[in-house]
User: What shape does this take?
Amino acid sequence: MTRGLIGKLKGTRSRFLIGLALLGPGLIAANAGNDAGGIATYASAGAQFGYRMLFVMGLVSIALVIIQEMCARLGAYTGEGLGSLIREHFSIRLTTLALAAFVIANTGLVVSEFAGIAAAFQLFHVSRYISIPIAAFTVWGLVVFGSYRRAERFFLVLSLTFLAYPVAAILAHPHWGSVNTNLFWPHLLATKGFLFITVALIGTSITPYMQFYLASAVPDKGIGPKEYKRERIDTIAGTIFACMISLFIIIATATAISHRAPLASASQAALALKPVAGQMATQLFAIGLLGASALAAAIVPLSAAYAVSEAMGSERSVSKSFRDAPIFLGLFTAQIVIGASIALLPGNLISTLINAQVLNGIITPLLLAYILILANKKSLLKGAANGPIFRTVATACVAVVGVLSIVVLVQTVSGWV
Assistant: This one.
């Protein structure tokens, strides 16, 4: 009897360990959106429009679940990342267009990560002209010299401070009736500012980096068609969890800041954490912002470097030298230099963070079209390809995002003229 019990315990332990081994890509990819740009955009949405943005964020969350599921399915059933799939199923011109758009979008995100680092250090009264160069050189050195993995856990722990937002939202005692009304019923505004923040929410939530990472991470973990049911749960649950954090950031900030206006500084965004941290809210926000920014400042440019190198069939590894992997390390270095340089330009750091998400939102529909076409291909996925209903819903999501992005792009260009 004892042996039987021990056997059952071992079997349960084995299944549990297998489950832990499979859990991860979907959760990690979705929560990557809650970086410096994400926090600033969600907080600005709450500060500027109160609870009105909750309905928009709810729709963005549904779209994100659909898109992330398609990417995980592509990775599991093909065993390849998006870079390889695009190269194999599209022409050279279309592949080049996709990769160029991805690199531009990611470079914009790198700008926002260094802006986030600068904003965090400004809360400790350190100038951006000191913090950004040091941060850029540190991140570059940690990756190129192969010691980033050690620092990654430290940055991840720092970024976990943003889990305080749900608690802060509850302790702030928001008007839950108003929260529910705005979440489930549209209270939209026909203004340029509202549309601008809407596209920023799309850009920071449905960011191409997350899709490319997830499609590559799933096969890299050995997850195939047989294991996909479990990975599908991970992807959907992880995405919902990340979106819930985003909603709570909007609620907490909308409740903490009564004067409806765009965020002027990181210290204003920190007010939402006051119910949890009291007088230490600014320091807590700064620590979380620093961790999230530093974590993404390396991962985002690496994802673009991997995608381009993968599509070109060239060497790609952080353990290689510049001589062995010139395209991979050269692209990574270029994004760090460009991103840090732009973040050093004079201007409001919060505006820089949000503008980078808008740029991402304008580029995102193009890359989503590639994902949708691949997920619809029966010749590629066979029985796992999008069914009629899923295809219709996914197409509608991509089309709506595309239309909004075009409108904002036209408004932006006409404003310049």
Notes: The chain has 20 helices and no strands.
